[in-house]
Amino acid sequence: MGIMDFTFNEDQKIIKQTVREFAENELAKVAERMDREDYWPHDLFVQLGELGLLGPTVDEEYGGAGADYIVQAIILEELARVSPAFALSIGAHSNLVLDNINRNANPEQKAKYLPKLCSGEWIGSLCLTEPGHGSDALGMETTARREGDCYILNGAKTFITNAPIAQLGIVYAKTRPDLGSKGITAFLVELDSEGVTRGQPMDKMGMRGSKTGELFFDDVKVPVENVMGIENEGRKIVMSGLSAERATLAAISLGISERAADIALRYALEREQFGKKIAQFQMIQDKLAQMYVETQASKLLVYWALTELQKNHAANMPAAASILYAAEKSTKIALDAVQILGGYGYMKEYVVERFARDAKLLEIGAGTSEIRKLIIARELIKQGKFEI
Q1: Is 203 helix (H, G, I), strand (E, B) or coil?
Q2: Active-site residue, from 245, 258, 294, 363
Q3: DSSP letters for 52-75
Q4: Is 50 exposed, middle or buried (0-12, 13-18, 19+ CB in 10 A)?
Q5: pTM for the complete prediction?
Q6: 268 and 282 in contact (C-beta within 8 Å)?
Q7: For 83-181, where are the alpha helices, taking DSSP H only?
Q8: Which domains are delineated in the chain?
Q9: Does the active-site annotation cover 245?
Q10: Segment 332-346, tens digit of pLDDT
Q11: What pLDDT, in 10s, does the model give residues 348-379?
Q12: 42 φ, ψ to 5°?
């Protein structure tokens, strides 16, 4: 599927329909409670595992679907149409952890952890961001020193999706702090290990129900066999995952845009003011037309970036472009939907205000909009030509 041939194959269409039915029939029942109570529906997470949808890009021998990033994005897009928060936790689990392990771990590590993660028995969490290091993630201060057949892990991670509920974390630490970003190692850390402490779940503006928290490591013993990849070469693993993270999570923004625009259109066709439907007013038509164009443009960018990513896992510019545009437009579209609904749009009984709050996170997480612009600009300058 290329940008000029925007079609899904039959298997992808079946998955899309399966996830849509799951979202509308099951997830919709708890979406409002998730937001109100910061509630995590663990039973639905397990159900996704039973449907074989938690490890879309994981090899089949380890319990995955053996599919591609297109399928990953389809799943997140459909979930986000009902609950962006649930989609976020699934994306963090499926892409940031399972896909990462599937690409970078050795066969023994895959056999030990992937089946549990694919089935929904375990939840995964990527542990990169630190209290003093957000956009400067490689400036991390968490350390790991080797002692015999273990590494001793010390430090803290923050703003970590799934941290309060995860059993396994991919934790990045400096094994050679003197080497800076060239001294980082990736570890598979079981989060019930002695010395691991979890902070209280963070109380967020949006994406409520998707648990975000802190993790503290105090002399945590990590077996040598839990090093993922090569010691001091964790930077490569970090960078190899960022483009896939951005391109797949952009599908959440796309789902938000689609649902918010649909709600706005339906409302405009029903609501009457001054004796006629508000959809007949040109200012409303202007917003609806912009919603359509921006949503379609987001869809093309997202799925084009994913096809580029499958050909080249270091396709940084397409990935950055897709989430930059899709995220910023989803916030705008959700807020425009609130505006079209007027006073009702500002009320919690209408879901557009939740979508507006949820949308904003995608402009911040997985590298801020500002970082994404830097990536695009630097790539353009590096290649020295503006070629599409």
Answers
A1: coil
A2: 245
A3: T-S-TTS-GGGTS----HHHHHHH
A4: exposed
A5: 0.94
A6: no
A7: 84-91, 100-104, 107-119
A8: 10-122 (1.10.540.10), 126-232 (2.40.110.10), 235-383 (1.20.140.10)
A9: yes
A10: 999 999 999 999 999
A11: 888 999 999 999 999 998 889 999 999 999 99
A12: -60, -35
